[in-house]
Amino acid sequence: MTELVTFLLPALPLLGLLLALLLGRYPGCEAIVRLSERIAAWSRPRLGSSSRRPQAPSAPRLVRGGGLLLALSLSGRAPPATA
After folding, report:
1. Domain count for the chain
2. From first to last of its 83 residues, what are the pLDDT tens digits of the chain?
3. How far apart are CA 48 and CA 73, in angstroms?
4. DSSP code of 23?
């Protein structure tokens, strides 16, 4: 009996989530909506505020991409010379 309880105990959260989904409830849905509204309101400029902070120029980023990344990963010392 204790082996069965030990086996099923980690599965209880999954079973609870599955039961909630089958009943039509989506846990965390309201929290996701509130968070997305907060992010949208934060990124949207406010109307009537004409004072904008001057932004400091950002330093150019040195990002390796594509062929350069492949070339740098394959570069290394040359193979040994065959005699």
Report:
1. 1
2. 788 888 888 889 999 989 988 998 888 888 888 888 888 887 766 665 555 566 666 666 666 567 777 777 777 767 777 76
3. 51
4. T
Residue the block writes with tokens 């509130």: 34
Q: What was the pLDDT predicted at 76?
A: 76
User: Does a structural domain hold residue 83?
Assistant: no
Domain annotation covers residue 63: no
- Record the tokens describing residue 56, joined without a space: 């400091």
The CA distance from 6 to 12, in Å, is: 11
pTM above 0.70, yes or no: no
Torsions phi, psi for 4 (to 5 deg): -65, -45
Residue 48 lies in a domain: no
CA dihedral 13, 17, 18, 24 (to 10 degrees): 160
